[in-house]
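Ticket 4471: requesting a sanity check on a complex prediction with adenine. Repro inputs:
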Amino acid sequence: MKTEELINTIPKAELHLHIEGTFEPELMFRIAGRNGIKLKYNSVDELRKAYEFNNLQEFLDIYYTGASLLTTEEDFYDLTMEYLKKAATQNIVHTEIFFDPQTHTSRGVEFDTIINGITAALKDGRGLKISEAQTGISSKLIMCFLRHLSEEDAFKTLHCALKHKDKIIAVGLDSSEVGHPPAKFRNVFEAALKEGFLTVAHAGEEGPAEYVWEAIDLLKVSRIDHGNRSISNPDLINEIIDREIPLTMCPLSNQKLKVEKDLTQHPLKEMLNKGIIVTVNSDDPAYFGGYINENLTAISDALSLSNNDIYRLARNSFTASFLDFKSKQRMLQLLDEWV
Ligand code: ADE
Ligand code: ZN
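Returned structure tokens:
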């Protein structure tokens, strides 16, 4: 089978996806229209042309502006459902979705409005048709704290989440990395762990390998989001291998935000060959020019990945997921039967 066909059809999980980063310009215009908001762009094309970034912060400024259009439960439902429909066409059978409540609560949107809209769509997504053989996208929700805000603000957000514990599997950490190390959030992560949440954190995207150490040692993360900079530190790489900490990597994001000079320089294949549980994900697909299959194709072309590498990446996506043991075994079996 040709690699591209394999990529498009193989069953897979997505583990690093910001729901606000799936906000396509067409939906922005639709939601702005019904909420009586006038965008400063005249067309979808004009808006897309603004998506040129030199670093993470330039992207975040535009991403938060886009996200500020979301106000009602229906907005969060539509945003999530559009992503799930797209995911179904790419043979994603399981997805773990980040959401950034502080982006919305800081504008007066209620925490419950956000989570109720998202989870109603996730529930309906369990009935979406994926292919002739498969029905339903299973999903988990991960609540991210914005690291440019204070730990006190993160505590307030954790407090709001407590009555929705059954809907949230983990807490995460995102937004502007440099200058906001994981150590800044050690107390709130400790409290989240005590409440039974798993933890993940963006680390080593633009920040140094030291931030990845901190995420592991202080925040007790089950996975690292990105982790590119880990490759500069052999001791850290050994630790990641020994502790079997998966990395959720996002090639097109790294290219668009200039985290890597060129995709041919991306550390994914070296990491895969060292036995690290790396996965490929889309991060903010509406802004970076592709969903999971386009990410797999781009990195496969850049690093000449084999069909067996693609199989290993798909396998890793289930292994690294937060599915319970039985569901994980079922999905791994589904993958192997498919292969
Ligand atoms: N929020 C959305 N996308 C992000 C990224 N790539 N890094 C940090 N925060 C983000
Ligand atoms: Zn991310």
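Notes from triage: The chain has one domain: 3-334. Leaving this open until the requester confirms.
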